Amino acid sequence: MPPILDSPHLSDIAYPHTDLLAVADRLNDNEQKKLQEIHEFLQTEIAPAVGEYWDREELPFDLLPKMAEKGLGEIELSDSSRLFRGLVYAEVTRADVSLSALVGIHNELIVGVIDKLGSEEQKQKWLPGLRQFHKVGCFALTEPEHGSDIAGGLATTAERTDKGWVINGEKRWIGAGTFADFAITFARDTSDKQIRAFIVELDREGVTTAKISRKMGLRIMQNADIRFDNVLIPHSNAIPGAQSFANVNDFLCSSRAWVGWQGAGLQLGIFDKAREYAVTRQQFGRPIAKFQLIQEQLVRILGNANASLSMMAQVAQLQEEGKLEMPYAALAKATTTRLARESAAAGRAIGGGNGILTEYGLSKMMADAEVLFTYEGTYDINSLIVGRAVTGVSAFV
C-alpha cells in the first residue's frame, strides 16, 4: 500500500489500496489478474453509466453484452475458486448494487439450479443463452403473503395432469420478473404437499407480470409481481433435482453468502465515493479530508469493509471445504449488511448537503444498503437463525 502522507495536496496522493488485509492476495496469479481486469471494466464502463438508470428505475440492457464478455453471466460455471467468485460479486456491487443483484441471482439461483438440479434437456436448452445473458431467468419463490415463512407457508400450487403441470398462484418481489424469459417457480404439489421447482416460460398463457415501482433502493433491478392463472407447462419443465424444499436449501444458503459479499462490496463503493468527495471538497480553505472527524469516519467505513471482506474470505473457505451451513451464511449476511448500513450513513454524512443528491452516489448507496439489509432474509430473521444455532432454542415456534 502506498504511504498516506500529510500533504496540502491530498488529491495528488496515490489512491490507497482498500483491501488493507490483503484478502485478494490469497488468489492465484491468474485470478488476481482477472479480478483486476473486471474491477477496471466495472469502474470505467459500468459505474459511471448507471446513475441515470437508477434515477429512472430502468435496467441498462445495453450493458449486459459487455458484462457477458467479462464472464459475468457464467461465474458459477467456471472452475474458479470460491474466493475469486465472491470477490467478483463484491466488485460488481462496488460498481452498482442493482446490477450485482442481477448478476448474483442469475449465477447463484438460476444458472446454479439448472446446472446442478436440471435435466440434460433443460441444461442444453437454457445454459448456453444464460452464459451470455442472451437469456435471463428469475427466481420465483417469495409470495405476497409469505416471505420469511415461505418454507412452511408457500401457497402456489402445481397439479399434475395428463397434459402437464398446471400452476396457480402469485409471487412477489421477483427480481428480473418483468423481462425474464422464464421463472424458476416454486409450487406445492397438490398430491403430496411437497414444494417442487418448475421452469415456467413467462410468455405462456395465464402468466401476467407487473413491475413494482417507487422503490427507495435497488431501483435498476426490475422487481415484479407475477400471477399464474391455470398455467399449463409440459411435464419436462419440472426440475428433476428439486423434488422438495430441502433440495434447494443449499442454493439458498450460498445465495445468502453471496449477499454477504454484496455487503462487503457496497462498503468498498461507499469508501470510494466518500474519500473522493473528502479530498476534493474545499471548506474553510482546505479539503475536508484534513479534518479529524472526516478522517475518523473514513477509517470507520474502511474498517467495516475490511472486517466484512475477512469474514467473507472465511465463508469462501468453508464453501471450498463443503462445510458452509445456513447459520454461518446467515451470520455473514446479517453482519456485513449491518455494517454496510452503518457505513452508508457515515458516507452520506461526509457528503453533507451534496450527499443527498444521487449524482454524488452516496445517497444512492445508502438507499441500496437498506435493501441489502432486508432481502435474502431480513436482519432479524438471519439473527434468529444464528440464535437458534448457538442456543439450541428456536424463536420461530
Report, as a whole number of angstroms, the end-to-end distance: 50 Å
Rg (C-alpha, Å): 22 Å
**Overall SS class:** alpha+beta
Detail the poorly predicted runs: 1-15
| Outline | globular
Strand content: 5-15%
Work out the helicity level. Answer: 40-55%
Tell me what the structure shows:
A hairpin with a 2-residue loop joins strand 8 (282-283) and strand 9. The chain has helices at residues 29-46, 51-56, 64-69, 82-95, 97-117, 120-131, 150-153, 245-280, 292-320, 326-350, 362-374, 379-391, and strands spanning 137-140, 157-160, 165-175, 182-189, 195-201, 207-211, 223-233, 282-283, 286-287. The model is unreliable at 1-15 (pLDDT under 50). The longest helix is centred in the middle third of the chain and has 36 residues, at 245-280. Helix 5 packs antiparallel against helix 8. The protein contains 12 helices and 9 strands. It is globular, with a radius of gyration of 22 Å. The strands form 2 sheets. Strands 1, 2, 3, 4, 5, 6 and 7 form a 7-stranded mixed beta sheet that branches. The chain starts with 28 loop residues before the first helix and ends in a 6-residue tail after the last helix. With 397 residues, it is α+β, with helices and mostly antiparallel strands.
